[in-house]
Write a structure and sequence with these properties.
- Helix content is 48%, strand content 17%.
- The protein is built from 13 helices and 14 strands.
- Helix 2 crosses helix 12 and helix 9 runs parallel beside helix 10.
- The radius of gyration is 26 Å and the shape is globular.
Length: 400
C-alpha cells in the first residue's frame, strides 16, 4: 500500500514538472506571436483605374520587402493586406467595413487612391479611429472632413491654381480655355479650383463640359467644345477617359493644346491615346528626375524587383508605407489595445507639423497642417514627347 502511494506521488510530481515547462513554452509562444503588424493598402486593383492600383501595390511591396529584410519594425514583421475598391465609392465603403471589422487587427490604412473612395471610407474609419493615409486623393475636402485622414501630396485647391497659372505664365500663346471634367469628387473639385483661378487671372473660359466615369464616347461634348474654338482644353479626370478624349478630339479635327492633371499621369494614357497623346501637358506631384539619391535608389530597386519603371504613385505609396512604419516604430505598444495603438499612429502623424519634424522620403519632405494636408509639396509639369512622358522644359516654381 505504501509503495503504491509513493508511486502515485512520484507520478503526480513528474506530471506537474512536465506541465510547467509546457505552460511556460505556451506563454512564451503567446508573447512571441505578436511579431506581425498588419496594414491595409486600399486602392483600385481592378476597374478602369487599375493601372494606378498596380503601381500602388508594387510600391508598397517594395517598401514592405525592404522593411522586413532590415529586421522589421522593432523585430516585428510588417504584413500588408491589399484591398480592392475598384475606384468606386460603393466598393470603398465595403472595403472600409472589412478593414475595421477584420479579426486581423489592422493598425492603419494606406489609401485610398481616388478621392471618392477616401471620402466613402472616411466615415467608417472615423467611427473606430483608424488612420487613412492617402498617396493619391487630392480633392480638397478629403482632409478637411476628418481628423483621421492624412495625405502626402498636394490638394486640388493648389493643383487647379497651379495649372491656371502655368498656362497663363508659361504657355503665353493660350488665351482661351475649355474645361472637360469627370463628374466625380476629383473631377469637379479640380475643375472648380482651376476655373476660380482662371477667372481671377483673366484666362478666357469658353466652355465647360462634364462626362461620367467609364464613358467611352465623347464626340457630343467635343463637338460642342470645338464650336467654341478654344486655344486649350483642360481635362480634369483620369487617364483612360483622358486618353479617349485626346484621341477622339484629334480625330474630330481639334487642334487645341490638351492639358491634364495628375489623374492622367499613367503610362496607360499613352497606350489609350496613341500618337494623339503627343504634346499633351500634365501636372504631377513628383518626378524621379527631381528626386535625390534616395529616389534614384528606390527607382533602381523597384526595377530590380518588378522589372518595370516606377511612377509617381509607386513613389508616393512607398513613402506612405514608410511613414506608417516610422509611426509604428516610435509608438507601437504590444501591451496596449488596438484602439490605443491606432490612436498613437494618428498622434504621431499629427506631430509632424514642422519641417524639422517632417518625414524625409523619396518624394521629398512631408509634414502636415492641422487638417492633415501636406505643406509646401510642389507640382511638376510633364509633356508627352516622342511617345514618352518627359519633364517640361519650363517649370513653374512659385505661385502668385
Amino acid at each position: 500500500m505504501r509503495n503504491w502511494f509513493v508511486g502515485l506521488l512520484i507520478v503526480g510530481f513528474v506530471s506537474v514538472l512536465g506541465c510547467q515547462p509546457q505552460d511556460k513554452k505556451n506563454t512564451s509562444t503567446t508573447q512571441t506571436t505578436q511579431k506581425e503588424l498588419k496594414v491595409a493598402v486600399a486602392a483600385p486593383y481592378t476597374g478602369s483605374a487599375a493601372a494606378f492600383g498596380e503601381m500602388i501595390r508594387r510600391g508598397a511591396e517594395l517598401r514592405q520587402k525592404e522593411i522586413n529584410e532590415a529586421g522589421g519594425i522593432n523585430g516585428m514583421k510588417l504584413t500588408l493586406l491589399f484591398e480592392d475598391d475598384a475606384g468606386k465609392g460603393s466598393e470603398a465603403s465595403l472595403v472600409a467595413e472589412r478593414i475595421v471589422n477584420s479579426p486581423q487587427k489592422i493598425v492603419a490604412v494606406v489609401g485610398h487612391f481616388n478621392s471618392t473612395c477616401s471620402l466613402a471610407g472616411q466615415e467608417i474609419y472615423d467611427r473606430v479611429g483608424i488612420v487613412e493615409l492617402s498617396p493619391g486623393s487630392t480633392a480638397v475636402e478629403v482632409c478637411e472632413r476628418s481628423p483621421w485622414t492624412f495625405r502626402n501630396l498636394y490638394h486640388d485647391g493648389f493643383q487647379g491654381k497651379f495649372i491656371a497659372q502655368y498656362i497663363d505664365n508659361v504657355l503665353t500663346d493660350i488665351e482661351s480655355v475649355a474645361v472637360f471634367f469627370d463628374n466625380d469628387d476629383y473631377g469637379r473639385g479640380l475643375r472648380n479650383a482651376f476655373v476660380a483661378e482662371a477667372e481671377r487671372i483673366g484666362l478666357n473660359l469658353v466652355a465647360s463640359e462634364a462626362y461620367e466615369r467609364d464613358s467611352t464616347n465623347f464626340k457630343a461634348q467635343l463637338t460642342s467644345i470645338k464650336a467654341k474654338n478654344p486655344d486649350a482644353i483642360f481635362i480634369s479626370g483620369l487617364f483612360t477617359e483622358a486618353g479617349l478624349i485626346v484621341k477622339q478630339g484629334r480625330e474630330a479635327g481639334i487642334t487645341a493644346q490638351f492639358f491634364g492633371a495628375d489623374g492622367v499621369d499613367s503610362p496607360d494614357f499613352l497606350t489609350v491615346a496613341g500618337s494623339a497623346a503627343e504634346g499633351t501637358y500634365l501636372t504631377t506631384p513628383f518626378t524621379f528626375g527631381a528626386g535625390g539619391t534616395e529616389a534614384k535608389q528606390m527607382e533602381a530597386n523597384f526595377k530590380a524587383l518588378h522589372g518595370v519603371t516606377p511612377d509617381t504613385w509607386a513613389a508616393l505609396t512607398y513613402d506612405a508605407v514608410g511613414m506608417i512604419k516610422e509611426a509604428l516604430e516610435k509608438t507601437y505598444n504590444a501591451e496596449a489595445s488596438i484602439e490605443d495603438n491606432r490612436k498613437a499612429i494618428r498622434e504621431h502623424l499629427a506631430s509632424l507639423d514642422t519641417p524639422e519634424e517632417g518625414y524625409e522620403g523619396v518624394t521629398g519632405l512631408t509634414y502636415f497642417d492641422i487638417n492633415g494636408d501636406t505643406v509646401n509639396k510642389p507640382a511638376y509639369v510633364k509633356i508627352v514627347k516622342d511617345g514618352q512622358f518627359v519633364a517640361a522644359e519650363k517649370q513653374l516654381r512659385e505661385l502668385k
